[in-house]
């Protein structure tokens, strides 16, 4: 029999620090617009997260080359690979039990025009009750702020949702907005009825990374992750 605890145990055994199940019915239109009919046909999303390494994230404001390289490797490439293995394990467990399962890659762009994936991991984590969408458009957890990377498995298994979307708790804080080197964030609070572009200009980040690469530097930033008071253990 498949249930929340069986899937949670599989996730934790593969190193997940966060686990939740989201009911996608309230966000179906957004899911349909981003990913299309097949993606929107799944009623649930299993959201799983792994923490980044605080010692590296804390050093990002130094902008030292070795820090950027280490952050990109250990907090991005390696964790993304681990997340994809985690999603594969969980999806396999669901499929063997006779249910549909679609692992969504942890960091693969599906739409180059809109600069987005086929499905939003942050939305799944938010709807599963694991955090809220901050002014940086990142998922902010209560205990580790945005210092978590995410992966999702879409499914029709009879699992119980673990929560619902949290209201934003950023208040008047603008540290991520002020830290952005290209002013990509408008500082607006998350509103599910607004497009991402009302809060975040993804093309500014894209252009910044292209500029860094053209200068022979590591295409890494992460300042919005590093400065968030929640991630530093301050509210």
Short summary:
This protein has 235 residues and is α+β, with helices and mostly antiparallel strands. It contains nine helices and six strands. The chain has a domain of 164 residues: 3-Layer(aba) Sandwich (NADH Oxidase).
Protein architecture, described:
- This protein has helices at residues 4-13, 28-35, 37-40, 54-57, 65-96, 121-127, 175-179, 202-214, 223-227, and strands at 18-23, 44-51, 101-104, 132-133, 139-140, 148-155.
- A hairpin with a 5-residue loop joins strand 4 (132-133) and strand 5.
- The longest helix has 32 residues, at 65-96.
- It is 37% helix and 13% strand.
- It is α+β, with helices and mostly antiparallel strands and 235 residues long.
- It contains 9 helices and 6 strands.
- It is globular.
- It starts with a helix and ends in an 8-residue tail after the last helix.
- The protein has a domain at 4-167: NADH Oxidase, CATH 3.40.109.
- The relative contact order is 0.18.
- A 4-stranded antiparallel β-sheet has the order 1-2-6-3, with helices on both faces. It has a two-stranded antiparallel ribbon with strand order 4-5.
Low-confidence blocks of residues: none
Global shape: globular
Structural class comes to: alpha+beta
The rounded Rg comes to 17 Å
Share of residues in helices: 25-40%
What CATH architecture of the domain at 4-167 would you give?
3-Layer(aba) Sandwich
Q: Which CATH C-level class of the domain at 4-167 is it?
A: Alpha Beta
Strand portion? 5-15%
């Amino acid at each position: 029999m498949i249930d929340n605890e069986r899937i949670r145990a599989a996730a934790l055994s593969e190193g997940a620090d966060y686990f939740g199940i989201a009911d996608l019915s309230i966000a179906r239109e957004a899911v349909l617009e981003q990913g299309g009919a097949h993606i929107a046909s799944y009623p649930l999303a299993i959201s799983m997260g792994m923490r980044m390494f605080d010692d590296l994230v804390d050093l990002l404001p130094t902008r030292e080359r070795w820090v950027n390289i280490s952050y990109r490797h250990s907090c991005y490439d390696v964790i993304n690979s681990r997340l994809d293995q985690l999603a594969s394990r969980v999806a396999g467990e669901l499929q063997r039990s006779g249910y549909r399962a679609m692992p969504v890659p942890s960091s693969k762009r599906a739409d180059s025009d809109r600069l987005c994936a086929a499905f939003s991991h942050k939305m799944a984590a938010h709807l599963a009750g694991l955090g809220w969408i901050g002014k940086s458009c990142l998922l902010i957890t209560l205990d580790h702020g945005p210092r978590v990377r995410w992966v999702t498995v879409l499914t029709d298994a009879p699992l119980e949702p673990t929560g619902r979307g949290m209201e934003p708790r950023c208040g008047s804080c603008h540290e991520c907005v002020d830290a952005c080197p290209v002013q990509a964030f408008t500082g607006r609070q998350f509103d599910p009825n607004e497009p991402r572009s009302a809060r975040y200009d993804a093309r500014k980040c894209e252009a910044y990374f292209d500029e860094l690469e053209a200068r022979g530097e590591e295409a890494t930033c992460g300042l919005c992750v590093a400065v968030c008071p929640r991630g530093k253990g301050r509210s």
